[in-house]
């Protein structure tokens, strides 16, 4: 029997999903940061960490500031307090967060993941949240490959404060291309789902870009590019296909 070379295997269709705010109805990074503060893993620095992003959080709640500003402050605060943390402690809290928050997802994207899985798509999750919390969350949903922030640890299993492969994880388009190459995927018939302008670079590479609950900048780009926009609010899903100016009647969720 002749075993075909990897390059000669039939390539699989792929779907690429941002996770925070797109499938998960919050940010896994925010949830795990708050859980770690409550668990006392940052010691006396925990409240100082929280105060460093509390102002941008209040501004976002009051619709005076942007969510991007808020999440940027959380990432900066988390990274600056990570050094010396035992990875085992971090993993313990991450598992608790996933167990408690696993079902806090949007119905549209949850059902889209299930449908694409049944149709044989290779599902790729791309997130800027820590891999240790994104991995268990996405695995339970049926994803085949998960990309997230990986933190360097020393010989004692403590975080050094540095993020590995930062040049790759910071660019979702690079991650998409890497996954296509390593997993023997094809972009023919591919699907991509994102929610902010930072997702534009990878959404431009797929055949079927979907902007789910987009922020204003992504919405404007999607309108110009003729992409599909989906809004899920409470128990209603509203879909707009800008390619043909088609507006699909809102669907009320059961």
List the helices and strands and how they pair.
Blueprint: E1 12-18, H1 28-38, H2 46-61, H3 67-80, H4 87-101, H5 107-118, E2 122-130, H6 131-141, E3 145-153, E4 159-164, H7 166-169, H8 172-182, E5 185-194, H9 200-203, E6 208-212, H10 216-225, E7 228-233, E8 236-241, E9 246-252
Parallel strand pairs: 1-2, 1-5, 2-3, 5-6, 6-7
Antiparallel strand pairs: 3-4, 7-8, 8-9
Helix pairs in contact: 1-2, 1-4, 2-3, 4-6
Features:
26% strand; 9-stranded mixed β-sheet; Rossmann fold; alpha/beta; 254 residues
What does this structure look like?
It contains ten helices and nine strands. It is α/β, with parallel strands linked by helices. It has a single domain, classed as HAD superfamily/HAD-like (Rossmann fold). It has a nine-stranded mixed beta sheet, with helices on both faces. Strand 5, helix 9 (200-203) and strand 6 form a beta-alpha-beta unit. It is globular and about 55 Å long. The mean pLDDT is 90.
- What oligomeric state best describes the polypeptide chains here? single chain
* DSSP, total strands: 9
**CATH architecture type:** 3-Layer(aba) Sandwich
Mean pLDDT: 90
Helicity level, as a percent range? 40-55%
By helix and strand content, what is the structural category? Answer: alpha/beta
Strand order of the largest sheet: 4-3-2-1-5-6-7-8-9
Question: Rg from C-alpha positions?
Answer: 19 Å
Kindly provide the name of the CATH class: Alpha Beta
Count of distinct structural domains? 1
Taken in chain order, the helices and strands follow as EHHHHHEHEEHHEHEHEEE
Largest sheet: 9 strands, mixed
Through-space gap between termini: 52 Å
The CATH homology group name: HAD superfamily/HAD-like
Low-confidence stretches: none
Strand residue content: 25-35%
Task: Note the total helix count.
Answer: 10
Which fold name is given in CATH as the topology?
Rossmann fold
């Amino acid at each position: 029997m002749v075993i075909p070379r990897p390059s000669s295997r039939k390539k699989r269709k792929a779907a690429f999903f941002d996770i925070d705010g797109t499938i998960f109805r919050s940010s896994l990074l925010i949830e795990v940061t708050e859980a770690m503060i409550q668990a006392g893993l940052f010691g006396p620095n925990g409240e100082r960490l929280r105060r460093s992003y509390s102002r941008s959080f209040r501004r976002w709640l009051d619709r005076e500031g942007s969510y991007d500003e808020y999440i940027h402050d959380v990432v900066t605060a988390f990274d600056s307090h990570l050094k010396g943390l035992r990875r085992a402690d971090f993993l313990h809290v991450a598992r608790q967060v996933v167990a408690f928050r696993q079902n806090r997802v949007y119905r549209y994207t949850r059902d889209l993941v299930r449908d694409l899985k049944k149709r044989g798509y290779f599902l790729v999750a791309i997130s800027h949240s820590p891999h240790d919390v994104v991995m268990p969350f996405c695995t339970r949903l049926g994803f085949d490959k998960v990309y997230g922030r990986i933190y360097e640890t020393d010989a004692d299993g403590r975080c050094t404060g540095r993020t590995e492969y930062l040049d790759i994880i910071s660019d979702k388009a690079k991650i998409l291309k890497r996954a296509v190459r390593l997993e023997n995927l094809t972009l023919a018939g591919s699907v991509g789902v994102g929610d902010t302008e930072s997702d534009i670079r990878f959404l431009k590479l797929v055949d079927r870009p979907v902007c789910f609950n987009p922020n204003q900048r992504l919405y404007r780009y999607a309108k110009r590019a003729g992409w599909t926009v989906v809004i899920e609010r409470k128990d209603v899903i509203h879909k707009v296909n800008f390619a043909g100016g088609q507006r699909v009647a809102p669907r009320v969720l059961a």
